Request: fold
Amino acid sequence: MKKLLLAASAAALLAGTWLAPAQAEYLKEHRGGTIRLLARSAAGTLDPHINYTDQGWQMYQPIYDGLVAFRKAEGMDGFTIVPDLAEALPQVSNDGKTFTFKLRKGIKFSNGQEMGVKDVVASFQRIFKVSGPTSGTFYAGIVGADKCLADTKNCTLEGGVVGDEAAGTITLNLTKPDAEILYKLALPHAVVLPADTPAEDMGSKPIPSTGAYMISAFDPNKGMTVSRNPNFKQWSEEAQPDGYPDVVQYDFGLSEEAAVTAIQNGEADWMFDALPSDRLGELGSKSMDQLHISPLSAWWYAPLNNRLAPFDNEKARQAVAYAIDRNTLVKLFGGKVLASPVCQVLPPDFPGHEDYCPFTKNPGTKWSAPDLDKAKQLVEESGTKGQKVTIIAEDTAISRSIGVYLQSVLTSIGYVADVKPISPNIQFTYIQNTNNKVQMSITQWYKDYPAASDFLNILFSCSSFREGSDASINIAGFCDKDIDAKMQKALDLGVTDQKAADKMWAEIDKQVTDKAPAVGLFTPKRLDFVSKRVGNFKFNRQFNWMITQSWVQ
Amino acid sequence: MSNQAVAMPRKTRGPWAVAFAKLARDRAAMASLSVFLLIVLACLSAPLYAKLAGVDPFASTLDAVIQIDGADVPVMEQSTEGLGLGYTPLGPTWRLGNYFLGADSQGRDVMARMLYGGLSSLLISGAATIFTLIIGTAAGLIAGYFGGITDTVLSRLLDVLWAFPIYLLAISLSIVTIAQGIRIGPIDIESGSLWLPVIIIGIVYVPYVARPIRGQVLSLRHSEFVLAAINLGVPGWRILWRDILPNITTTLIVFVPLMMALNMLTESALSFLSIGVQPPAASWGTIIQDGQALLYTRPLVALVPGLAIAVSVMALNVFGDGLRDALDPRSKVRLGRD
Reply:
């Protein structure tokens, strides 16, 4: 762990010295203006301790800070942890269970209040007081978290988060070492807010921030205005760089088609939502220079209910994995430029990923073609032929198309299949609840942070399965005690030797893939369409496009 | 010799013959009927069309390649310009049996789906009409004839149904039943069954039939021939069946095309919202939904089913008006709330 932290610090220093002069020059030349963003709807609550959406997390980057942050850099560099409100990465002691942060001085919130130790302590308590969506998972390892989870209102995290006003330090004590704790602290759910922020979901009310920008107006039905934080002075270019535009105007309500037209006409600069599929050809040929294609650490997959017939039979699950033509799915998603076929769980370029595909015509490292004969043979052997299967898809154009395609695949290998598209607002929770007896579904998983456990442990560990709950993220209901034990071992190993742990995760990835609790469909890519005036487009692998690092003048 | 002809008694036509003769003289109604029958015939030929065209209108065929003028043409064409983003389905070939109206986003023959979709839409709207007429007529007859507490209870129940906006009620019922179907005692309708939209659409329009029927029965209940039958001790069910029902038959016939038009619109709306006919089955509503994502490149996929719905509904409404004028010229029966 220490070795890793040292390496991260050195890399951060190098990157910082390289970036600094260039940014200063560009800032002089391009600073100012209003960048106009569009989305079909708002991302939900403004509260960073509660909001758990891509859209929200992306927008929080120039606004809020935690003790540490993901580096505001392009590509894979964006996965590096750098100190943010803390002066440096923490000192680790007590066998990896204690982390001591020294807080920077002179940082102010956008309301003029000085940011200090009490704000950090209160913010950690607030994660539990507002029942943050990851309080019971990401932050459950903090000493005192169990009491906070049981009694949220009176959460003190006693012994877990200890502040020393005089020394300006924060000590974080864990119940056991956690190799991923810095990633978790760099997420918006752990940002530092003023100590007097009410311990309730702030909804549409902006909370003062420490970042380069602040939310100055918000109407969930109209839009959000983000303007410069008057109290901001850049302390770390790689953690919280100053931005180019003076104002970010984020408007809600336009359809995707209308948003494309607005960007083409120069009336807007970017849209959050996916581009409509029938405009891809036109944009790809006429507006190439305005398009940016970036890889995502994400997985489109079809969970198969391991506790319900016919997919309680491993051979039946493998049959489906063999039968699906991933190229067809890639076509439905917009083509090879926008997605790649996949068999395994961990996405490419992700820690622990080693190319692996057993469910293809020529098993090996890459998917080549479906093997229908093998699939039919497995269905026969499983004795599940002729059984009824219902696929639950999201009622969106792409998910519905995939559902219809999968229905025809299942029919072709001997099942009686049908597909039900249900509203995207409820589909994700509906497919998680065992009471709904969902046999097969279509969904996606986007990483929270760059660690193999964020896919394998979260999606396929026994503890992620909860009978009859809407929050049972192990949708397949997969539980293999041996694999579970291995995952725990890999998590423990990561504390001392992340490389060895990643090797172990690669093995686990293969084992889970072999058991086919879910069928990998494809890895998507992000397609950003910006107006002609947007310059300096930079895509961060952790939080996508860095909005305020682009200029509009 | 007298050349005087013998006066023959003049043959009088029955009321049905008079009505049909009147209907036959109504050109607009007959033209509408012809259009509607043509649509029905076309839809009935769906399996034949699919067989002759050699297409499966329900299966994804993204890799299919067809022959046009001896050349191989992919059903889904990848953009070759610039970044090569996205696939565009084949446009209309205007050749019957060979992707006449082009392909949809799954590479399926739109013409074949149009015909199958029409069949579903017609079946659902027809069956829902029968369902509504049976339940609505029974409710109207019982409420109007027996009166008193029976009338009060039934009328209030109808009022409750009437109080909900039709589409809101239909959407709510569909959402509740879409995933699990209906399981009440011996009734077990699986999700995805065409019976689900039939029953839902049938239920929401019951007050539209029951209310006018109840009104007619109320007035017939006090007519001399009904009072005579009551005084003679004829049982109530027999009076309803033999004396009252025949007197409201014309109203019921008038209801058929008008209800069918309404039901077709409702079915299309539900299917468009993914809560009617379920994929991969087709209805005109689902095809419009499929075409929504292709409005920019292949607008016909959404326009053609929209046009089919508009023409069918218009034909049914014009024919329904003609039928009403022929059968019951004094009738004030109109569908709707006003």
Q: What stands out?
A: The interface with chain B takes residues 257, 276-286, 288, 291, 293, 328, 331-332, 334-335, 337-338, 390, 392, 395, 397, 400-401, 403-405, 407-408, 411, 418-423, 430, 436, 527 of chain A (CB under 8 Å). Chain A has a mean pLDDT of 93. The longest strand of chain A covers residues 518-529. The longest helix of chain A spans residues 2-30.
